[in-house]
């Protein structure tokens, strides 16, 4: 069920009161909400993949990637995507997407896999070698290493491992980012990127995916490059010195728990679930849906996040400012809705990945 350090990391999570990203409470809430929207097939697959220490509870492991990022340092850049300062927009790889959707797109049949990924590669590479890479890259400029890239990657790993049809998946589309080409597999109607390392550990893939779908909904995980998503903006949260990113990761939720929910996370989750079924019921279908029957669609989520970051997170949060009731009470509804959207969308993604007919084979 995974390497020995998964269990130790999970034990450590129980001992540490505050961690990175949404924080333990936020990620727990997201995955607990998602559990309520899983189909029978998806729930069975998830339970089969979870480590024994989770005792069948996806929410128990949703913060795991925050702890192992110090053990697996390559995973650090996969928690966020930086965007250009003050532009308030996100583009995975604008030039690449233009190319992939242009008349230059090459559609091949399954028996042409070798031709597409081999003989035609150099010719296509010459066409687009100079194209820019967009926002999804790490600080060293390595392309596709960001939270949206990670979501594509781990969705693809789970899907290709669970569907018999993967053996017939076709390398139908070729997209070239700078000097690197990416064969994109058409799976369940979605073109999934595989820009970096595959792992045979589907337990890890599930935990990474569940966590990263949460991360991409935190507005400052799609924040500005210049301030590292608010990490370098020092503020006071009431009387406590902190940074803006931490306010959105943890402190808004912590304050909400103490102020409105008697410090009980379960009560907060129930309140969000009631909002989903009542106030937001007309929005749920649109939250669940990916365009063109895609399996996963993190790019719109990232675009939503940077828009919210500009409208709510950065606004009135200048370096040295004190954030108190006005900021807290006007931003809490944004945070709670993002937690709700994360949970609904995580469930929808897992439902598509583990749709009826999927083959469950865990080594």
UniProtKB/TrEMBL annotation:
Entry's Gene Ontology molecular function annotations: metal ion binding; nucleic acid binding; RNA endonuclease activity; single-stranded DNA endodeoxyribonuclease activity
Reactions accelerated catalytically: Endonucleolytic cleavage to 5'-phosphomononucleotide and 5'-phosphooligonucleotide end-products
The keyword Iron appears for this protein: no
Signal peptide: 1-21
Top-level taxon of origin: Eukaryota
InterPro entries: PLipase_C/P1_nuclease_dom_sf, S1/P1nuclease
Keywords linked to the UniProt accession: Disulfide bond, Endonuclease, Glycoprotein, Hydrolase, Metal-binding, Nuclease, Signal
One annotated GO biological process: DNA catabolic process
Known EC number: 3.1.30.1
Main enzyme class: hydrolase
Protein family according to the UniProt entry: Belongs to the nuclease type I family.
Protein name: Aspergillus nuclease S1
Record organism: Ziziphus jujuba var. spinosa
């Amino acid at each position: 069920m995974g390497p020995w350090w998964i269990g130790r990391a999970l034990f450590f999570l129980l001992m540490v009161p505050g961690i990175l990203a949404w924080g333990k409470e936020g990620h727990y809430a997201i995955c607990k909400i998602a559990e309520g929207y899983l189909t029978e097939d998806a729930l069975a697959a998830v339970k089969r993949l979870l480590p024994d220490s989770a005792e069948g509870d996806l929410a128990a492991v949703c913060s795991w990637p925050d702890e192992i990022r110090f053990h697996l340092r390559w995973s650090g850049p996969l928690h966020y995507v930086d965007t250009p300062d003050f532009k308030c927009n996100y583009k995975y790889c604008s030039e690449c997407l233009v190319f992939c959707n242009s008349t230059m797109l090459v559609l091949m049949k399954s028996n042409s896999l070798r031709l597409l990924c081999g003989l035609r590669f150099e010719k296509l590479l010459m066409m687009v070698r100079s194209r820019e890479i967009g926002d999804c890259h790490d600080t060293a400029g390595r392309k596709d290493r960001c939270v949206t890239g990670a979501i594509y990657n781990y969705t693809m790993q789970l899907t290709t491992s669970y569907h018999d049809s993967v053996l017939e998946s076709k390398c139908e589309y070729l997209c070239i980012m700078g000097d690197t080409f990416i064969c994109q597999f058409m799976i369940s109607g979605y073109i999934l990127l595989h820009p970096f390392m595959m792992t045979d550990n589907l337990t890890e893939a599930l935990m990474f995916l569940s966590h990263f779908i949460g991360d991409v909904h935190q507005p400052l995980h799609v924040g500005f490059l210049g301030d590292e998503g608010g990490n370098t903006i020092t503020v006071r949260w009431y009387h406590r010195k902190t940074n803006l990113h931490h306010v959105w990761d943890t402190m808004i939720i912590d304050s909400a728990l103490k102020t409105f929910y008697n410090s009980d996370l379960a009560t907060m989750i129930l309140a969000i679930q009631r909002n989903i079924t009542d106030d937001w019921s007309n929005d749920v279908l649109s939250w669940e849906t990916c365009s063109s029957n895609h399996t996963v669609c993190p790019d719109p989520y990232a675009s939503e996040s940077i828009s919210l970051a500009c409208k709510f997170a950065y606004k009135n949060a200048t370096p040295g400012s004190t954030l108190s009731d006005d900021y807290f009470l006007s931003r809490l509804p944004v945070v709670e809705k993002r937690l709700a959207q994360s949970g609904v969308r995580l469930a929808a993604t897992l439902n598509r990945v583990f749709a009826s007919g999927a083959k469950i084979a865990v080594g």
